[in-house]
Every structure is written in C-alpha cells, then in structure tokens.
Amino acid sequence: MNDRLGDNSSREGINKLFWKLADHKVGEITPQGLHSAIQELGDNLSLEDVTYILEKISEPSLDINISSDEIYYIMTKKPADVDLFTPVSKSTK
C-alpha cells in the first residue's frame, strides 16, 4: 500500500501516506477512512475486519484511531524489533 501512497523511507513520506489515509475532520486514521482506502486499492476487507485490526494495534488504549506519530512508529519499526505481544498504543510513543 505504501508504494502506491507514499515513500516510507522518510518522515515526510510517512506523513504524506498518513494524510492520504486520515480523516481530516478528526486528524487521525479512523476505521472508516482506512476501510475506504483499502477498498479503493481493490481489497475487500470488511469494516468489521478493519476495526478489529485497529483495535489490536491500539491496545491497551481505548482510542482505536491512529495518529501520525503512531503510523510513523508502525512504518519504521524493523520486523526483528516487533514484539507481537506489545501492541502499539498512544502510551508507547
């Protein structure tokens, strides 16, 4: 997805990706906005599936929206450094 929407090798590129996916009224990536972007790219994930994914990424936070700092963290984390048992949250920034 990032190949089509933005360059993930820089903060500027990740911010570009973020603003293409973000709900501009909220200033964060919402389940509905991400679902729309995924459908535009030809995938058929349901809104429920997208909401579930964002809930898992955002635990233990109650806010499932993704901020620009969170997307930067997600996009720049090396696979070897990912702890699958510690989801990304606003408290881990």
CATH architecture: Orthogonal Bundle
Percentage of residues in strands: under 5%
Q: Gyration radius, to the nearest Å?
A: 13 Å
Which word captures the global form? globular
CATH class category label: Mainly Alpha
Helix content: 40-55%
Oligomer: single chain
pLDDT averaged residue by residue: 79
Could you tell me the CATH topology label: Recoverin, domain 1
- Helix/strand order: HHHHH
Low-confidence stretches: none
Superfamily (CATH H level) name: EF-hand
Q: Note the main sheet.
A: none
Describe this structure in words.
- The chain is mainly α and 93 residues long.
- The chain has helices spanning 2-5, 11-21, 31-40, 47-58, 68-76.
- α2 (11-21) crosses α5 and α3 (31-40) crosses α4 (47-58).
- The model has no long low-confidence stretch (mean pLDDT 79).
- The two termini are 23 Å apart.
Task: Throw out a few tags for this protein.
93 residues; mainly alpha; Recoverin, domain 1; 49% helix; 0% strand
Produce a short descriptive summary.
This protein is mainly alpha-helical.
